[in-house]
Amino acid sequence: MSLLEVKDLHVSYDGIKAVRGLDITLAEGEIVSLVGSNGAGKSTTLRAICGITPFQSGKILIEGRDIRSIPPHLLVREGISLVPEGRGLFGRSTVEENLMMGAYSRRDAEIGKDLEKVYSLFPRLLERRKQPAGTLSGGEQQMVSLGRALMSRPRLLFLDEPSMGLAPIMVQKIFEIIRTIASTGMTILLVEQNAKVALSLCSRGYVMESGKIILSDSASSLLANPQVKAAYLGQ
Amino acid sequence: MKTLAKYAIPAAILCILPFLIDAAFGKTWVRIVDFALLYVMLALGLNIVVGFAGLLDLGYVAFFAVGAYLYALLASPHFGLHLPFWLVLPLGAFAAGLFGILLGAPTLRLRGDYLAIVTLGFGEIIRIFLNNLNAPYNITGGPQGIDLIDPVRLGPWSFGHSVYAYYFLFLFFVLFTAFVSTRLQHSRIGRAWIAIREDEIAAEAMGIDTRNVKLLAFAMGASFGGLSGGLFAGFEGFVSPESFNLMESVMILCMVVLGGMGHIRGVIFGAILLSVLPEALRYVGPLQQSVFGRIYIDPSSLRMLLFGLALILVMLMRPAGLWPSPTRKRELSAKGETARHENTNVYDAGR
Fold first, then answer.
1. Taking CB atoms and an 8 Å limit, are A91 and B205 in contact across chains?
2. Tell me, what's the ipTM?
3. Of A47, A64, A28, A16, which is closest to residue B205 (Cα–Cα)?
4. Residue B153, in any domain of the structure
5. Which one of B78, B151, B205, B280 has the fewest CB atoms closer than 10 angstroms to its CB?
6. Which pTM was predicted?
């Protein structure tokens, strides 16, 4: 059974039909990217799955279980974790406070251990742990956002434009870290405008346009696809 | 020994303070200090909503009014009810808390300026209701208000109009409010409030029930307002809608902002400063009289002028407030360094 299954999803807000009949599946341990141009409905799809934006029709199943009736704040306990677009940090709180907020829904004794794991993944954050998150550089902020998402011990990690607003070299660094996270067996859905970098990291990809999936294939075939090349890779 | 000094000395000072003030400046000033304590409670209550949860509330005085009127209705000859204060006071806090939810529920999706407009309207609605609920049935006494409210009574002993007795009563409630505020700030709920203030979507993604947590902020803030309202009614012996106008809400908000939003000690400082300073400016008139032989500038207009000037200066020089929280201060001072980090990081990333 697939870990995440989205069937015929329709989302509209403010009178705009942002997503019109979208189907996506994610198997356990897979890293899949959802690429598409600005306004294709990628972020809306993620937000709908995470319960932040309500959806009109369709089904979202996690291990075959419909999550429609679960209020958004309880979805974290189902193992869903989101790295929001624009990072969504608590700017005035320190790095460590931000990371600890990721464990807000947890009450077990291993939170401290996970914090150390995050610090070993991002040594830079250990140096900056007492600094307000808003004063970090863009790349460091993205690290905080990733680390915070990991603190909830997710089974399913959603990344919304992790490369946005970062210097190219920082983008590389962040994607290396995503690769490291993926190597631990985490299931990841990566939403990106930067199709080339995203597809080179993933095994499979979906191409989205005007609220629909127009292509679905292995990452290597998508990278070789002339249509994708022309529209998203600038070749 | 150290802890003894840390608590015993301030406690001793707070205990003899009203007598010292009386000896130095007279009883009027003890009364002013009593009011300052009420304002401290109000500012701490509003700080929960504005400082912690980041929800701008321009109608906070409405909750003060709810507490005050509930006390007045249940402990005065108006309805012939004379319930004891230990019953009326918690009732007032509870009723104000309900009003807080009443205001919070329809405004959950609003933020910033939109929320400010609705809360402003709410504050005015409550005041206008109080002003007009005297016909066909006289509930609130209309513009005349309610007079002859029972003073606070503990067993056989009435507080009467003793400014000293009220000083200690208010001091007790201020300490209580400050204690609860501090505990809230460092609790799970406090962290959730801060998260909502900083980024609501991210907060929701962390698993925070943003709806309930926001309502709780409104309710908690409002109940502190209601509590101080009840104390105000017992202390003054008289309430009327006039005392609960928009300027009061603005004043309480100024105390929070000027002192240092979200920082409990800063807010207390702001409240004391802004409630005592305007009173001190009353002496400017007699001072001019004695120095120049006549009054050049009317003290009442000077008060607002200086007040406005002080606000502008503070916001220019100390944008985080007079006594900001350590985090806030760090953030503002670190601003200049960020750019430098940004540059070094780009290079570091390549390593």
1. no
2. 0.87
3. A47
4. yes
5. B280
6. 0.87
